[in-house]
Every structure is written in structure tokens, then in C-alpha cells.
Amino acid sequence: MLVNSLIKAVLTYFILIIIGTNLIGFIVRQILKPGLTDDLKQLKVEVRHDLKAIDVVISIVFMIISIAYLIALYYYFNIGILISGAILMFSRLPDLLFEIKMGQKINFKNMPKTPFDNFINILSWLVLPLLWYSFYIIQDPNSFF
User: Fold this and answer.
1) 143 assigned to some structural domain
2) Which pTM value belongs to this model?
3) pLDDT band at 44, cuts 50/70/90?
4) Is residue 8 part of a domain?
5) How much is the average pLDDT of 101-126?
6) Is residue 71 part of a domain?
7) Structural domains in the chain (count)
């Protein structure tokens, strides 16, 4: 039972990362654009002022899908999985804003190393024990697994 819960937690962690990253990415990338400056220190992320109706519709649709995703996590699993999914979605937000600002994917050399970014990275890894706890301790008889 313990090993089974650990395996489910690790697999669920990667599935939640993939789904949450894509959902939050669709929402944010439709609304924000990189600030246009030549100085790398002064780069900023701005709200797009040239939004078309389709951009707004796509953002609203993916917001609704994200809310439905979080509700489904609670309904089919438990509150621990819901919290894990929400943490993983929102812990991706600073990296996503940095990618939009820089115009390139984050790698080990250009990743931000501020205390806030370190906290967010640690928080995303602390989801693993929460997932294990959710599968091992908080067992719902109506659970999907």
C-alpha cells in the first residue's frame, strides 16, 4: 500500500505538471506580451492592448477549463490532489512570465535565482509529499484510483 501510493504520487506529479503548465500557459500567453526595450535589465511583461476577440474567447475558455480541471480533481480524487494541482499550476506562473519577458525557454544558465523563485521551485517539489499523503492517508472510497 505504501509503495503503491508512492508510485501513484510520482506519476500523478508529472501528469499534474503537464496539464497545469499547459492550462496556465494558454491563459497567460493570450493576454501578455513581452515589453519592447533593448536593455535586458529593463525587460517587462505588459498586457496586450491589441487583443482580438478570439484572444479573449480563448482565454475565457481556458479559464473555464482550468476551473473545471480543479473541480474534477476534487470530485474524482480529494482535497489534497486539488491543492497539489493548484500549487503546480501557480508555481509555474513566475517561470512563464520570465519566458515571455525573455522570449526564450528557461534553462539552467538563464533561470532567475531570486529568493522568490527558489521558494516557488521548492514549493513545487513539496507537492510530492502532499500527493503521497493524499493517496496514502486521505483515501476516499469514491476515488478514481
Assistant:
1) no
2) 0.81
3) low
4) yes
5) 84
6) yes
7) 1
